[in-house]
Specification:
Strand order of the largest sheet: 1-3-4-6-5
InterPro entries: NA-bd_OB-fold (IPR012340), Primosome_PriB/ssb (IPR000424)
Helix content: under 10%
Number of strands: 6
Keywords: DNA-binding
CATH superfamily: Nucleic acid-binding proteins
Protein name: Single-stranded DNA-binding protein
CATH topology: OB fold (Dihydrolipoamide Acetyltransferase, E2P)
Strand content: over 45%
CATH class: Mainly Beta
GO molecular function: single-stranded DNA binding
Distance between the termini: 52 Å
Radius of gyration: 16 Å
Largest sheet: 5 strands, mixed, barrel
Organism: Mucilaginibacter pedocola
Length: 109
């Protein structure tokens, strides 16, 4: 089996679920996505929380003013950071590094 080609692509549509924080490298916030899952013929809601990081180099000045509840479409790639942990050995953080985004519902503070 050849592993010459691979894809690291993430597409999310969700709502900002935390305050927007910025530093010298990234604007960071949590994005909540929701879906309905069929479990034993019952449709139940399922939410996922994703940590979003948008590089400051993109024109993101409008994002700094956004508040919780704003609907966003984001495209990017998955990045895993491994941190040491005294109890289990390692903690894995998965971030979405955004390459493109669109504000769908603008909730300005």
């Amino acid at each position: 089996m050849s592993y010459n080609y691979s894809v690291n692509k993430v597409i999310l549509l969700g709502y900002i679920d935390s305050p927007v924080v910025s530093n010298s490298e990234f604007i960071t916030f949590l994005l909540c996505t929701a879906e309905k899952i069929n479990r034993n013929n019952n449709m139940i809601g399922h939410n996922e929380i994703h940590r979003i990081k948008i590089p400051i180099g993109q024109s993101v000045s409008e994002l700094i003013k956004l508040k919780t509840g704003t609907k966003l479409y984001v495209e990017g790639k998955l990045q895993t950071t491994v941190l040491p942990d005294a109890g289990t050995g390692r903690i894995y953080h998965k971030d979405i590094i955004v390459t493109n985004y669109e504000i769908l519902e603008n909730h300005l503070e």
